[in-house]
Amino acid sequence: MTPEQAATARRFALDGRVAIVTGASSGLGASVARALAACGARVAVVARRADRLAALAAELDGLAVTCDLLEPERTAEVVPAVAKRLGPPEILVNAAGNMFTTERAESEPLDAVRRTLGLNLLAPFLLAQAVFPHMRTLGRGSIVNVSSISGRVGIPGIPQASYAASKAGLSGLTAELAVQWARHSIRVNTVAPGFFRSEITGPLYDSERAAAYLRRNTPLPREGSAEDVVGAVLWLAGDAGGYVTGQTIVVDGGWTAR
After folding, report:
1. CA-CA distances (angstroms) from residue 107 to 110, 160, 188?
2. In contact, 206 and 161? CB cutoff 8 Å
3. Is the pLDDT of residue 9 over 80?
4. Residue 62 near residue 43, CB atoms below 8 Å
5. Phi and psi for 109 in degrees, rounded to 5?
């Protein structure tokens, strides 16, 4: 490896850095956790499903923190547990998210709205607040929120008002935290994926009509995957994205560029 190649590789290295990844029991969260560990990070994985979480933590030689992020009291315990076991976190990836209703906007139940905002927006804010003092002391940090193109554009035929509101809120939160915390060299960004197969979107891909709709409206001629999103997260988490903050990076195969 030439010196130039080594220097480029180091920009993506995360050796010894402590990272927290929420929503890590499946899908994108699990993929992100594996990628961070592969780059040298010490990874704490956070989710509700303890059995899946324990298996992933063992695979990564990391730490499993079982938590329902809809419970603020439990959420407050996550960062102290990680700091005690692994050390102060300098990477936080808020990948946990869900939709709690498929009703049209005029019929969304209040409880579903509150749960959606609680998991998708409030929990990332609380975790960002919790990692802030550790990152401030370290003199650096990277927070990456996982949003959705639903926070930028309406999707015909897929009712998701509270989900869209929560994801748009993440971009607003990202910009504000980035400006407030920039003086501490804490960077805050959001990745907004388009459609890819996951537990939430599985029914879309299982329907030929819906799958054809997705193909027809995605300029790039292939199906997206979690790994496409992981690349953007890795870039933002480490030194390669060291001068990027306050941004929402869209990874959608060109869906929103039409």
Report:
1. 9, 11, 34
2. no
3. no
4. yes
5. -65, 145
Residues 31 and 51 sit within 8 Å (Cβ to Cβ): no
Q: Is 163 a catalytic residue?
A: yes
What is the rounded CA–CA span in Å between residue 71 and residue 85? 22
Average pLDDT over residues 58-71: 96
Residue 53 CA from chain centroid, whole number = 16
pLDDT at 202 over 80: no
Paired tokens of 88:
């102060």
Identify which of 29, 28, 57, 54 has the alpha carbon closest to the alpha carbon of residue 43.
Answer: 57
- Where do we find the tokens 């804490």? 186
Q: What is the DSSP letter of 206?
A: H
According to the model, what pLDDT value does residue 156 have? 80
DSSP-assigned beta bridge partners for residue 13: none
SS3 236: helix
Residues 6+ apart with CB under 8 A from 160: 99, 102, 150
Would you say residue 234 has pLDDT above 90? Answer: yes
Is residue 210 very low, low, confident or very high in pLDDT (cuts 50, 70, 90)? confident
For the record, the structure tokens of 212 come out as: 């054809």
- Cα separation, 69 vs 74, in Å, equals 7
Among residues 163, 205, 213, 243, which one is catalytic? 163
Higher pLDDT, 99 or 46: 46
Using alpha carbons only, what angle is made at residue 226 by residues 215 and 213, rounded to the nearest 5 degrees?
15
244 is written with which tokens? 């990027």
Mean pLDDT across the chain: 92
Under DSSP, the state recorded for 184 is G
